[in-house]
What does this fold into?
Amino acid sequence: MTGAPNVLTDIRPCIKCGYNLLGLEISGKCPECATPVERSLRGDLLAYSDATYLRALLRGVTLIMAGILLVILNFVLGITLMALIGPGATILAGIIGMLASGVSIYGYYLYSSPDPGQLGNNRGEQPRQIVRIMLVVSVVAAITQFALMLIGNRGAGITMGAAAGIDWMQILASAIGGIAWIIQFFAVMLYTRWLAPRIPSERIFKRAKLLMWLGPLLCVFFLCFIAPLIAMIMYYNMFSWIRKDLIALIKGAEPPSIAAMQY
Ligand SMILES: [Zn+2]
It folds into this structure.
């Protein structure tokens, strides 16, 4: 101990307002916005985030992964049962499909939880909000489709004109749901690219960046089932990496060095 005051000797911006903290006491506060100086020195790492927030992200990621597995199971099971028991299989497929949607919608909802300790110029906030808005649109579209299906099935009492109207509304609802899902995919990728340096994980960042264009490209070849399956496995892998890192962070592991990483 030299007895010298514990002040910042290099140029460091305030994490909230960008004020230059050079020469200020580390135990002090930013003179512009009153954020503790120490908070700005710790940076944005998830290791310093609230454990409740991290557990919400972990639950979200786990449910997203369960949703992906259900979709794959449904696909494999659907083909097998279709061959064995015929059209009756579509009812079972419909039930598993609805379960998969419910699980993944709740998963993405938790994965896009706001961080109460998040400060500063937040690049992740916009994609995070878009994810949540698109979830609402998806749910409304799905409920509308389901309601229209019930009305349409009443059959006998419905005129030809009304039936055609219901058909068109169903097509519209399913189109809106599909568009919401596509927008949500890109928002989740942007949000994950923002989250990755906070973990910090270079491979998660690179995977999200890659899937942003490779995912849609692989899904264009949906008629050969292997390409979208590869996209889904790569997507699933990314979430399994996030899950592993979140578990380590919740257990209190030291964050790895970020010095060598490039984003
Ligand atoms: Zn400040």
In short: The two ends are 37 Å apart (CA to CA). Residues 14, 16-17, 19, 30, 32-33, 35 surround zinc ion (CB under 6 Å).
